[in-house]
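Q&A log
Question type: sequence-to-structure
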Amino acid sequence: MQQSKGIDGSGRKVLLTGTVMSPSMKRAIAAFAATGVEHVQCDAVSYSAAIGSHGVDYGRRVFPSYRFGQAETVVALNADFLGTWGDNVWYTAEWAKTRRPENGGMSRLHAFESGMSLTGSNADSTHPGQAFGAGPCGGCSVAGDFW
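Response status: OK
Response body:
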């Protein structure tokens, strides 16, 4: 019987994660990688389009950090920012800042999504089944029904 390469300890050693945005997690992974382990980041949904568009618009290829804590209304278009989209820990903390009625008011969250998400389940209004990316202007037609 022939053993697969790597079973005996030889071969490539990889730490496979999703995109890491946390500076402290990046430092911990770098320390671990110094032991000879390669860090590979892989996401089920690619963020390269968002990063690339920010590179074109702002001159830096970075993933945005939206300040939901300063917003009165948030509209999520297939963006599960409370669950799986981007830096959901940051987004959840930011969004929660304006969701406290004891502070004199609450922001509004409207989710347009093709499938149910954590963000949609926490939204003040959810609009399921919207076909984003279809038609000549993508999801822009939803604004007419929403506003």
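Response note: The longest strand covers residues 108-113.
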